[in-house]
Amino acid sequence: MAQAFKRGDRKRLSALLPQAKGHPLEPWAAYWELKARLDEASTQEVRAFLNRYPATYQEDRLRNDWLLLLGQRRDWTTLSDEHQHYRMRDDRELRCYFLTVELLEKGPQASASIADEVRKNWMAMKEADDGCTLAADRLYFTKQFKALDIWRKARLMAEHNRPRTARNAVQIVSPADASHVNDILAKPLPFLNKQIAAPSKAKQELVVLALVKLATTDTDKAANLLRDKWRPYLTAEERHWVWGVIGRQSAMRLEDEALSHFARVANDKDLNDDMLGWKVRAALRAGNTPKWPVVESTISHMSAEARKDPTWIYWYARALLAHKKVTPQIQQEANALLESIAGVRGFYEQLALEELGRKVTVPARPDAPTADELEAARRNPSLQRALYAIGMGLRSEGVREWNYGTNLVDAQGKAGMMSDRELLAAAQVACDNQVWDRCINTSERTRTVIDFEQRFPMPHKDAVIARSKTINLDPAYVYGLIRQESRFVTDARSHVGAAGLMQVMPATAKWTARKIGLNNFTPNQINDRDTNIAIGTGYLKLVLDSFEGSMPLAAGAYNAGPSRSRRWRAPNDGTGPVLEGAIWAENVPFNETRDYVKKVLSNTTNYAALITGQPQSLKAKLGLVGPRSASAPAENLDLP
Fold first, then answer.
1. With the C-alpha atoms ordered 94, 95, 98, 104, is the resulting torsion angle positive or negative?
2. pLDDT exceeding 90 applies to what percent of the chain?
3. How far is the CA of 36 from the CAs of 2, 55, 83, 251, 269, in angstroms?
4. pLDDT exceeding 70 applies to what percent of the chain?
């Protein structure tokens, strides 16, 4: 039935459903069968399903699917009746449909908080969606959204190469121009060269869209056109936004000109948080000494929500401490900010701890789950189905069921969030079943206690440590990387084909096997535990040596490829700046790799504390990142 569902084979699903009656995964079978024909199912059928499988993931998942369908059909009465029973509440489009119901009921009297929530959800969605676009259209009609709100959405989508979503936004504010959006974004330079002036507000905004799109491929041309041709025709806000995009794109390319582009923005309030984040990164990377006043000023202009991020709390505190004269009041403010995040939970939390003069140590372990607590977790129907599904190879379904069960169902299987004690017990059940990814993810969600041995387990300990020591590789670094790569799922496979514990690509595995003398290697061996560890650690060691022992550079190379990590460090002519490892990591242009490097190094620090029993320094592991030393051994340039 799982295979038939993926194929969209409705007839096969209906034929097989009777055989699933009484099976532990019957709710999944019933969900697949009804979901496949939901567009033609009756309301009675849907409600019968919801009543048959109460408090299950499948009940709430189908309700989510049905509510989206009701929104598309504009069946506001049924949607309003059913929405109150929806528990997951994690679907932005569905939330926008429900907010639309409130807007239709309240009209111009709808609260400002509704408009703010729609704006937040709409701006966050990159794919074209009906729900939030409809809500935004309604808010524009009732004058609770300004035209600028709509155009800013279109600008964001132009920068992120989402022409359809950009067109949908323009359709709201200027229907006559919406049909031109695709052509403008496909060929922005001809459009900008052809246009002589911007005779209307809509035409000005189309010019802005074209400049934004051009900046994603050629910042110099976009900057020249903005400065030399279009400046007189655009408002200050429009110019600032385009310079913000140019600055962001330049900063992502690690260009020295990034800060000068941002400097053309007279008012940081005209930039969004993402642009401001890249302005901070550019200021941190500007030479051997960061531009601390720019860091401080820029973070102060971020939204209140963005300023709560540990990233910006840490760097704002560092900027305060970099004042020429640090008064007791400034010291107190900086220390309070650092204390607010200091701990072992993540990268900047650990750095804040060190900034306060303390190192990373293993926290006191909470009391182990009692026999009754463990038994309650084992009896939880959602967790039982999750483990069964994972055990029979339906990992995706099992993971979703587990996440639902630990987020929205208590230990007795009733709706309600698990307590820390229940989470620890559920995590332990996953550990006991060697479902390490659920063990880690569940343990990470405890709020007041931390069980380091759950959060940082060490499966295959003898094999990992023995292999690491053989090739002179820090086992904590290996464990930190495996935890991030696969969560210790031995048969993990990524969408690009990376496989096993250490997520090795087939071509890389073949190359590494030759390098480390692993004879008679064949691709089908890559999921074998010991083979995967041998090849993964062998490749990691070669990468680490190639980058002169720099853990952040090697982690970046492992994730995004050695050639990219080489480009992201200072130039090889020896003239580039020498950066703190944390500054280098924060400037990694790829969101995924930036997050990966920080998590691998944070993991490594915590594993080192566990393995050695000694206080650890994340800063020491990050080190400094600068140009390649002239005295370094020849670089292994054929690393895949």
1. negative
2. 89
3. 11, 21, 21, 46, 47
4. 98
- Residue 463 structure tokens: 């094999």
pLDDT per residue over 362-411, tens digit each? 999 999 999 999 999 999 999 999 999 999 999 999 999 999 999 875 54
> Helix or strand or coil: residue 357?
coil
Report how far Cα 636 is from the mean position of its chain's Cα atoms: 31
Each residue of 152-189: pLDDT tens digit? 999 999 999 999 999 999 999 999 999 999 999 999 99
| Active-site position among 485, 548, 580, 586 | 485
Strand partners, 360: 616
- What per-residue confidence (pLDDT) applies to 200? 87
The CA–CA distances, whole Å, from 102 to 76, 113, 131, 135, 142 equal 10, 12, 13, 10, 13
Beta-carbon contacts of 408 under 8 Å, excluding residues fewer than 6 positions away, are 60, 87, 88, 415, 416, 417
> What sign does the CA torsion over 89, 92, 95, 99 have?
positive
Q: Which of 121, 118, 159, 135 is nearest to 271 (CA)?
A: 159
Ordered DSSP codes for 255-292: -TTHHHHHHT-S-GGGS-HHHHHHHHHHHHTSSSS--H
For residue 235, pLDDT over 60 is answered with yes
The DSSP secondary structure of 594-607, one letter per residue, reads: HHHHHHHHHHHHHH
β-bridge mates for residue 625, sequence order: 579
User: Across-strand partners of 624?
Assistant: 580
DSSP-derived 3-state class of residue 634: coil
Contact in structure between 135 and 99 (CB atoms under 8 Å): yes
CATH number of 461-625: 1.10.530.10
pLDDT of residue 635: 78
The pLDDT value given to residue 416: 67
Residue 10: phi, psi to the nearest 5?
-65, -45
| Contact residues for 62 (Cβ-Cβ < 8 A; gap 6+) | 31, 34, 35, 38, 46, 49, 50
Give the separation between CA 85 and CA 74, rounded to whole angstroms: 19
**What are the tens digits of pLDDT across the range 485-522?**
999 999 888 888 899 999 999 999 999 999 999 988 99
Domain residue ranges in the chain: 2-90, 371-449, 461-625
Residue 354 known to be catalytic: no
Return d(Cα 236, Cα 221) in angstroms, integer. Answer: 20
Nearest to 27, CA basis, from 397, 380, 378, 391: 397
pLDDT (0 to 100) of residue 411: 47
8 Å CB contact between 190 and 201: no
